[in-house]
Specification:
Strand content: under 5%
Radius of gyration: 11 Å
Shape: globular
Number of domains: 1
Order of helices and strands: HHH
CATH architecture: Orthogonal Bundle
Structural class: mainly alpha
CATH class: Mainly Alpha
Largest sheet: none
Distance between the termini: 14 Å
Helix content: 40-55%
């Protein structure tokens, strides 16, 4: 189950990285297909997660990969 706290922390970072409004980011948003993430974006996201949550999740280099899956990756490492 998606914990809103993790999602709410990640959402502004994702909006900043991908230069979109926070309202465009939902748990169903696909980082690769909707936001056009590349492996450099995933490295940046991993660094943010490590700094904010103290965990280093293994993130894929290509999709599909939703924000919900990203949030679950963080939750499962805690």
């Amino acid at each position: 189950m998606l914990k809103p706290g993790v999602f709410n922390v990640l959402k502004p970072f994702l909006a900043d990285i991908f230069t979109v409004d926070e309202s465009e980011i939902t748990p169903e948003t696909d980082l690769f297909y909707d936001l056009f993430a590349d492996e450099y974006d995933m490295i940046e996201i991993a660094m943010i997660i490590e700094e904010e949550f103290g965990v280093t999740p293994k993130l894929p280099k290509k999709g599909p990969f939703t924000v919900e899956k990203l949030t679950e990756a963080v939750q499962n490492k805690k």
